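Narrative of accomplishments. A recurring question from our advisory board has been how the design workflow behaves on a single, concrete structure rather than in aggregate. To address it, we present the structure tokens for one chain from the evaluation set, followed by the sequence designed for it. No filtering or post-editing was applied between the two.
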């Protein structure tokens, strides 16, 4: 299995519009962070996690020529609003593409983007054709076993993250319930929200992310959903063994 980090950044992306801080003005490409997303390649299937607003640029930069399915974590704009870019894959593959998520997430997508989820399009122009599936727990994604990992996202909301094989992608969280922690045992690779240096009401900040990573005990942890707090090369030197900052274009091979 191969995992490509398509976007390691938070909702604003990095550089942030109008910001003149050292990270936003950095020439280091690892400090340029598109919005959160990754691609799992497993058993010949290309499984995308979320459709970031940067999906077009991610697809061009990382040569994503096929998407077989999408796993949605939640309904926030920085994880959804690239959904229209899926239409090119419908055209190339000449088929509808299945998308999976928790019921409320799927219901929201169908309500907000009704033109995408029609059985056939009434429009003469190219539009996405997606098939929506509500899932929970363990489920089959085109023959690939997937484990949903519910996580707290503040005091009122949840995100529904995913484990495939020995890797897990946990974005937008500030707390992992005990039942979810049990499904994170024996990981080779963990991608974990580590938003910024100071505490935040709905995301892990750096100290919390480190503590959570050390509790989960994956062999390797990469922090994701990063703000411009982090100068990549500076902060990587300060992190505990086995924990690093992710960056756009990071490719990780995992033996399942």
């Amino acid at each position: 299995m191969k995992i490509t980090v398509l976007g390691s950044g938070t909702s604003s992306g990095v550089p942030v519009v109008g910001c003149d801080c050292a990270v936003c003005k950095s020439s280091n490409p690892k400090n340029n962070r598109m919005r959160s997303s990754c691609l799992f390649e497993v058993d010949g299937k290309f499984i995308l996690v979320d459709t970031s607003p940067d999906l077009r640029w991610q697809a061009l930069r990382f040569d994503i020529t096929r998407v077989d399915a999408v796993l949605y974590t939640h309904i926030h704009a920085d994880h959804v609003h690239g959904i229209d870019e899926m239409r090119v894959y419908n055209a190339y593959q000449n088929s509808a593409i299945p998308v999976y998520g928790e019921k409320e997430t799927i219901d929201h997508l169908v309500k907000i983007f009704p033109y995408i989820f029609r059985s056939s399009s009434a429009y003469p122009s190219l539009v996405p054709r997606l098939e929506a599936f509500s899932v929970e727990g363990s489920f089959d994604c085109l023959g690939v076993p997937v484990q949903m990992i519910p996580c707290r996202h503040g005091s009122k909301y949840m995100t529904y993250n995913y484990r495939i094989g020995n890797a897990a992608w946990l974005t937008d969280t500030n707390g992992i319930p005990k039942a979810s922690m049990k499904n994170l045992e024996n990981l080779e690779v963990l991608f974990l929200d580590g938003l910024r240096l100071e505490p935040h009401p709905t995301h892990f900040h750096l100290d919390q992310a480190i503590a959570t990573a050390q509790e989960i005990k994956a062999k390797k942890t990469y922090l994701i959903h990063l703000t411009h707090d982090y100068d990549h090369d500076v902060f990587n030197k300060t992190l505990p063994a086995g924990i690093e900052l992710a960056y756009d274009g990071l490719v990780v091979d995992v033996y399942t």
